[in-house]
Write a structure and sequence with these properties.
single chain; 9-stranded mixed sheet; 9 strands; about 20% strand
Length: about 280
Amino acid sequence: MTVVYIDLLFLLNLTANYLLLLAAGRIAGAVLVRWRIALGAALGALYAALIFLPGLVWLARWPCKLGLGVLMALTAYGGERRLLRVTVIFFGASAALAGAVLGLELLGSASLTLEHGVFYSPIDIRLLLLSFVACYFVLSLFFRRAGHHGDGLARLQIVLEEKTVEVTALRDTGHTLTDPADNRPVVVVAWEALSRDLPPWADPADPIGSVERCHAAGSRQARLIPYRAVGVEHGVLLAVRARQVRVDGKPLGRLLVALSPTAVDDGGGYQALIGGI
C-alpha cells in the first residue's frame, strides 16, 4: 500500500506545473505575468491532490485532464494573442517532461509517478525538484534554438496617457531607428498590439494625415519617423510619444513609439522591435 503525503504531492506538482507554464510562455514569446502562472500551476497541483480523495477518482479520466490543461493555460495566459501557441507548447512540454520522468523510472528503482500519472516520489525532494528545474532549462534551450530569435526577447511596457500596454519585443541589433530631434532610440510596435489604446486620429496606414489630424486636435503627440527597408527606399512611420517605456522593468523615459501597419514578427512570437536598449 502506497502512503501519499498530500503536502508533498501538492508541492511537487506545483513546481512542475509552474516550470512547464513558464517554459511554454517563454518559448511562445508571450507576456509573462508571474502571479497568473503561479495560479495556473496551483490549479494543476490542487487537481493532482483531489484525485486521491475518496470518491474523486473520476477526475483522472482523460477528458478531465485535457480540460484542466486548457484551464491552466487560460488562467496563466488568457487574453494573450499567442494563447493557442502557448497552449500547444504547454501540452508538448508536459509530454516531454512525462517522457523524461518515465526514462528516469526505467533507469532507476524508485517510481516518480503514481497510478494516475501524477508526479510523486518518496525519494529526496531536493533531488526531484532539481530534476524538474533541469528539465525546464533543457526544454527552454531546445525550443528556443528551434525557434526564431528566442534568446533576444524582452518584456516591453508602454505607458500611453493613463493606459499601460505590455508586449513582447525582440532585441534586434539591426534596428537603428532614432528620433531625429534627440537621437534617442525609437521603439517599433505592430499597430494591432496598440490599436485599442491609440487616439482616434492615429492611423498608421496614413501617417501624414494622422499628424495633421493630431495637430488639428491641439496635440503635438504625433511625429513622422523616416525609415528605409527592403523594398522601401524612402518611407515614413507614424510615431507617438509615450509617457514612459520600460524594457524588462527598466525605465527608459519618454521614447517615441513608431507604429508599424503590419506585423513585425516572422513567427517568433513578438510584437515589437527594440535596438540595443
